[in-house]
Design a protein that fits this description.
The structure is a homohexamer. Chain A has about 140 residues and is α+β, with helices and mostly antiparallel strands. Chain A is about 30% helix and about 30% strand. Chain A starts with a strand and ends with a strand. Chains in contact: A-B, A-E, A-F, B-C, B-D, C-D, C-E, D-F, E-F. Chains E and F meet through strand 1 of E and helix 3 and strand 5 of F. Strand 5 of chain A pairs antiparallel with strand 1 of chain F, so a sheet runs across the interface.
Chain lengths: ~140, ~140, ~140, ~140, ~140, ~140
Amino acid sequence: MPRVTVTRRMRFNAAHRVFNPSFSDEENNATFGKCNNPNWHGHNYMLDVSVEGPIDAGTGYVLDLARLRDIVEAQVVSLVDHKNFNLDVPFMKGVIPTAENVIVAFWKILEPAVTPAKLQRLVLWETENNYVEYSGD
Amino acid sequence: MPRVTVTRRMRFNAAHRVFNPSFSDEENNATFGKCNNPNWHGHNYMLDVSVEGPIDAGTGYVLDLARLRDIVEAQVVSLVDHKNFNLDVPFMKGVIPTAENVIVAFWKILEPAVTPAKLQRLVLWETENNYVEYSGD
Amino acid sequence: MPRVTVTRRMRFNAAHRVFNPSFSDEENNATFGKCNNPNWHGHNYMLDVSVEGPIDAGTGYVLDLARLRDIVEAQVVSLVDHKNFNLDVPFMKGVIPTAENVIVAFWKILEPAVTPAKLQRLVLWETENNYVEYSGD
Amino acid sequence: MPRVTVTRRMRFNAAHRVFNPSFSDEENNATFGKCNNPNWHGHNYMLDVSVEGPIDAGTGYVLDLARLRDIVEAQVVSLVDHKNFNLDVPFMKGVIPTAENVIVAFWKILEPAVTPAKLQRLVLWETENNYVEYSGD
Amino acid sequence: MPRVTVTRRMRFNAAHRVFNPSFSDEENNATFGKCNNPNWHGHNYMLDVSVEGPIDAGTGYVLDLARLRDIVEAQVVSLVDHKNFNLDVPFMKGVIPTAENVIVAFWKILEPAVTPAKLQRLVLWETENNYVEYSGD
Amino acid sequence: MPRVTVTRRMRFNAAHRVFNPSFSDEENNATFGKCNNPNWHGHNYMLDVSVEGPIDAGTGYVLDLARLRDIVEAQVVSLVDHKNFNLDVPFMKGVIPTAENVIVAFWKILEPAVTPAKLQRLVLWETENNYVEYSGD
């Protein structure tokens, strides 16, 4: 059977502060600029979850995108939507909540959650001009 | 001269908590749901600032959009970008930071700032599905 | 209190055939072209529902957009999403399902449903290049 | 019959130089900045043409949007697409090709061209952040 | 010569019903939910066709995108636009019209049609949140 | 450390004429059509610059996207924004300014400019329907 990649786009809103608690205030300001605001700022995030596999002959699906949506909603989006990445999200404890670290944390949760389908790629948009991608490397 | 409306779109990111400090916790949760998260959440906001007037014969402009951008940047965007609407923004002190209240506060600042051009309309997008408009009424 | 317009954007998918059953086949083809396909075609529709009113002092809302979303979902979207406008939608019976007729039918349902808020404007996108607006006139 | 506004979105690419030939070089640079490049620059323009009228009982249309597209293509878009507004466009001769002046020129052409439908509004996007509107005033 | 990937985005509207005729009604409802509506539903599809190859020294093109557009229009889009995937499209006969099966069918047609250029990737958007990719594997 | 791809989207406007000076006028018209307008035309270009590398433990960044933006602005965007690709851009001298040739020229500049980060992919949008990608091959 042909192997196709199918993607579900999800959206959520969250607050964060990008800083390293082991840095001095000066270092944090120099490194992170306005993203270091101690009173937080936030984003409308957009997350593309892509899984890859053969088309099932009975359904014509690689994986029902409604089921993929439910998995991502339950395992990831419900834990971060309208939350503070630094204060509210257990799996980000002790991790600087850059888009890079967030996407790797999402990968660790989603890779086992979508089996037997194969998680192929995550793309996370933080603003209309900034996005990051991760493929498990 | 013909009268044209010209618009500059601006973007900023901010955190907020939507709640009424005079409500009980139960009332706030019932009224504002997940927007009441005491640890904040945030958005990528998009703001369309529209001014209206006759076309200037010498320039072909109603108002140079680069100048409008600079006014809005200096008077509004620089005060809210990467900020917390509840904690960091003087003109939102004591005001519930809903999109409705934010847009009215922006209007009060921008209407005198763009004279002699006439501020005609503000549109503020909070998410890809929610936006508010205000025309000074 | 200032009067603000607040909008909730909704999305749904539907099939339709644009034709007049009292026309001959030739007239229908000449008038409606490929939109007259007797085997149907379809669209991803986008609907912006705008209501207008004073800001409530207690909530900072004109109307909670989550509540507006629930009203539109229950009264309109759930009746047309993944449906056929010609065959499945009672309130379109006997009406040619152009975007113009659809938006007027939506208005008749939504205007009383959003009271005491005032329905101000509907915008319905049929494709990325075609949209219609109605304000109850 | 209900009165609805229907819109067709069109797209074209063009070059221009924004300057006033009666100004000195210094005045042009001070007034128009990088838009005054004597070697031109260009844009992907987006134009929304809105006409308003009653719904026709026989067709369900205010005006067939395919017909509106053909009118706008023939009368406006074909004259400016892949053209230079300063050099190639007869109806812009002697006019500074700002978005404001372009939209007024388009209005003069389109208002009689869409009769008996009533041209209600033009919106012209020059970049993703700048757009102008005109309603014939 | 450097090897570049060039993409042309195409759009079309179609109706479909996602179901397996060898399933019982109960199985079809359980498997396909509202996509199984026997009266059809539809989408505005967006298709990105990417071909890869060396830049031609004489033209600066890998493949003239206007020519690629004409090929895709003639071989694929004209056969599915404003059509019903289940009833009107010969190359989908007996195939469940999921996005996965549609994209594989498109690949089989387009791969030989774009030679000597090399078809590298197709992306098919069914809604603003769901899309599939295929590279011939 | 996990390896992530981070992307910064940039935008600029430019004019160009797509033609081969060693071709006759007839050949240029036959080959390049309206893109061969001797009076130029133009576009709003969108450029995605992607670099790949391990996440830095101290910052949580692969590469600060504000720094990437500054590099791309200084090395590429400031040289082409509001310019004419044929007349104003030294690194395009003698090169047909197709999107394919532009993206390869950008690569040659940006690959050394982003070290020690690794330039992974450029994507250049010329219109909403046409884009090209290059990965240094």
